[in-house]
Every structure is written in C-alpha cells, then in structure tokens.
Amino acid sequence: QVQLVESGGGLAQAGDSLRLSCEVSGRTLNAYVLGWFRQAPGQEREFVASITWNIGIKYYGDSVKDRFTISRDNAKDTVSLEMNMLKPEDTAVYYCAAGAQVTGATMTWSEKYDYWGQGTQVTVSA
Questions:
Q1: Mapping DSSP to helix (H, G, I), strand (E, B) and coil, where does residue 90 land?
Q2: Residue 53 near residue 74 (C-beta atoms within 8 A)
Q3: How far apart are CA 2 and CA 57, in angstroms?
Q4: The pairing of beta strand 58-60 with beta strand 68-73
Q5: SS3 (DSSP) at 40
Q6: Using CA atoms in the order 102, 105, 19, 16, what is the torsion angle rounded to 10 degrees?
Q7: Which tens digits make up the pLDDT trace of 23-40?
C-alpha cells in the first residue's frame, strides 16, 4: 500500500502562484510514477503532470505546460507541484497519485494509477 497526503491548496487570484505538496509513504517508490491530476465540478479528471520517481522524467498536460513544475524530493518522499501564472480555469480539486505500471504511453491515464490522495482544493479568482 502507498499512502498519499496532499497539502497546499487554497485561494488565489489570477496570476498568483501556489505550491502543492504530496507526502508519500508505505512502499519503496523506485518503480513508481507520481502524478498530479485535477477535477473541476462536472468535468472529467484531467492529467496535470507526472514524474518518474527513480530518474525524474517529467510530463505535463498541455494546459499547464510552461506554467506548472513538478518535482520530487527523494530524501523526504514528497512530490510537489509549483503552479505559476494561475488562471481561473485552474480551479479544481487536485489529486496526487502513484502507479507502478505507468508507462510513457499511459502517463496521462488516471486508471493506470493505483493509489490516490484525498485531494486538495485550488480556487483561482479572476
């Protein structure tokens, strides 16, 4: 089992920055991909970003590329999402996820991630 606990969400104005963190515990993570997804009311869960735990290869969704940065701290077992130039359309619940069977071709598929955090709300006003 892998436990994931997100923190850092909150209220922001357009153009602001927020940093989300995900504390990971329960299993050695070398074979895992850690990802961030988000879900706005009435919409499907959307891939935001992911990172391979062992060598740190990063992937980004098109809507956040060049604004968001994912990183991991192997010593602290945390994965973070730095969100810059926030827009109202970034408003959503953000989820941290972990998967051991995620490949480069399936990085954006939520169904490939086995473990999920409880989510943290991010609200961006215009």
A1: helix
A2: yes
A3: 20
A4: unpaired
A5: coil
A6: -160
A7: 999 888 888 999 999 999
